[in-house]
Amino acid sequence: MNVTHQGKSRHYRTVWFDKARNRVRLIEQRLLPHKFKVVSTADYRETARAITDMIVRGAGAIGAAAAYGLAQGARAFRRGGLKAFERHLAKVHHTLAEARPTAVDPLNAMRGMLAQMTGDTVAGRQQQALAAAEQFAEDDVAHCKALGQHGEPLIREGARVLTHCNAGWLAFVDVGSATAPMYAAQANGKSFHVFCDETRPRSQGAILTAWELAQQGIAHDIIADNAAGHLMQRGEIDLVITGSDRTLGRTGEVANKIGTYTKAVLAKRHGIPFYVAIPLSTIDWELESGQAIPIEERAGDAERPSAAGASGQSRQQRAQPGLRRYAAGTNHRYHHPTRHFQAAPTLETPRQAWPSGCDLLTAHALGQAQNNPLRGHGDRCKFRLHCQIYPVKQ
């Protein structure tokens, strides 16, 4: 997306790779909205620390950062044959995988890269590593653009949208997930208003989402986290769109920023559509229960004063686990590049709930080609969901 900095506007991605210097380039998100700065990481350990310390954050962005970090570590290997290279790469993978345990995008990104690194020489695999990392970044952008195309009809003229935390372009390589339908609606000339939860304890909504929307010229307010229910009760919210750090393909459970569960419960109580916007890389097809998702806990000093007026164009309405799971039974909807899905509020056994099962790639291809996520899978499918899923009629 475009950033206006020191009077000049240019396009930036959240993360990219400097091939000549073997460095990962990142927007330093902890300094926003008061200072815009791009930093470089010298090696894969620094890249992992940048993920842990939230210099870069957001599912797709840390997925791409981990992918570039793996390529960075692979390209730094200088001495030894394939066996030594594989041992080195395992160490790099472990370091990056442990940087942010809740999110699944880094694991999916690196898993995909390793599957493509099949060359007969170290040099060949190093080249394949960077090519695969670049492809992950490009796919992330493509998926987010597709989210925008599919989600744009949800935002009607004059709509009032609530979002929580930051699932914008800063959380991905570009475009974002929850914000993608907003940017697409803006491009189509629609007028609408966004309410940004400030999102304690790190205030990503006030600091990042509001800054993004201000940069793009989208009308918005920052609201206190506890104000959402008041606005819903008064009929001032038409829909909610959030992102996700990890969504379980088997159960439909979603892990996202602390406070998301509260918004889902409130939305259900007031009959407001609640959408979770995710690229395919955010789906975890292996874990069988949300209770198994590692939930980050950060130091007590993570609690910060809210950033009143942080975006420069926002007005704030006013009158320590870092993430939280919420279950399929809250009746939220999944919004990903292939289809919209709604999880039924009653849980069933896997075989009752998803008759033919579905794996990630065939679901993506089938949903685009035949407009039906259940048709034609047969014996090729290997994953089953614990809750009933059906397409949402728009």
Which labels suit this protein?
single chain, 394 residues, Four Helix Bundle (Hemerythrin (Met), subunit A), Rossmann fold, four-stranded mixed beta sheet, 11 helices, 35% helix
Describe this structure in words.
The chain is α/β, with parallel strands linked by helices. The protein has two domains: 137 residues, translation initiation factor eif-2b, domain 1 (Four Helix Bundle (Hemerythrin (Met), subunit A), Up-down Bundle); 247 residues, Rossmann fold (3-Layer(aba) Sandwich), CATH 3.40.50.10470. Helix content is 35%, strand content 19%. The chain has eleven helices and 18 strands. The strands form four sheets. A nine-stranded mixed β-sheet has the order 14-8-7-6-9-12-16-17-18, with helices on both faces. Strands 13-10-11-15 form a four-stranded mixed β-sheet, with helices on one face. It has a three-stranded antiparallel β-sheet with strand order 3-4-5. Strand 3 and strand 4 form a beta hairpin. Helix 1 packs parallel to helix 3. The longest helix has 30 residues. The C terminus is likely disordered.
Can I get a quick summary?
With 394 residues, the protein is of the alpha/beta class. It has helices at residues 44-52, 59-76, 82-97, 105-116, 122-151, 180-187, 204-216, 228-233, 260-270, 350-353, 360-370; strands at 2-5, 8-11, 15-18, 23-27, 38-41, 160-163, 193-197, 220-223, 239-242, 246-248, 254-257, 274-277, 283-284, 316-317, 323-326, 333-335, 340-347, 387-391.
